[in-house]
Amino acid sequence: MQDKRIAIAHKVVIPWLTLLIYKIMSNQCVKRLRNNSSHVIFFSKFCIKSTDCTTLAEAQAIQFVSNVTSIPVPRVYCAFEHKSRVYILMERIQGQSLWNGWCQRQPESRARILDQLRSMIAELRSLQPENSMEISNVAGGPIYDQRLPKKSIWGPFRTIGEFHRELRNGIKPEDILHEGTPTDLRRLISFHERDWGRPVFTHGDLSSMNILVRGDDVVGIVDWETAAWMPPYWEYTSAWNVNPQNQFWQEEVHRFLTPLPFEVEMEAIRRKYFGDF
């Protein structure tokens, strides 16, 4: 009975403390004093993530990866929704972003880090989805990606083909039979309509900013908000399409992910016709 009361107290007290700390630490004056412009609140050995795009699915993805792989991810202490906003209380991993100082690293240091990343991706690729054909988050719900056009919440979809059709605004192969259809659009739809097999578990944003290191050791992969069961090429094309601050990383992606230049070309065509990535 005592253990049950303690468990119930933890379910109430920890979220309450999380909200209190977040409110204090996110105060603009406090953030300026602590020189923290991040969307994550850091304190002691903990951090709280709560943004307009934070979802419970991110916490579920982190816990899933922690349970079934050896990939270093933050420990999740609690995740909850309060007044339509999600809060995730996590372990603060002691390390620095790979973005910080990558270009100054020696080739041997880079190679050691990339080897570790390659092994971690192999672990992700070995995972099997429960709903074998669905495009969905780890809990079977919708996927989130604010880089996609028009909306950030998509699906879930019964198949990769359904996801692809949604990406191209519902256009079907029979809709492009007329002679005026651009050749590259025909190529894209042919690419989308192939037999893809099963989706694979995908981080979805393997930017150098989301990889934490200490020395030459990868100690954390963070920001799992876009993690989902996705088409096999999605990890590579998502990582390759870097943001302007991360341009150098485009030259490194093929060193830890299987290069997919044709798929990159197809994604460029998709963005051309149906919205930027």
From TrEMBL:
Domain (Aminoglycoside phosphotransferase): residue spans on this chain: 56-244
InterPro entries attached to this UniProt entry: AGP_Transferase, Aminoglycoside_PTrfase, Kinase-like_dom_sf
One protein family per Pfam: APH
Gene3D superfamilies xref list: 3.90.1200.10
SUPFAM superfamilies listed in its UniProt record: Protein kinase-like (PK-like) (SSF56112)
Domain of life assignment: Eukaryota
Protein name from the UniProt record: Aminoglycoside phosphotransferase domain-containing protein
Organism: Gibberella intermedia
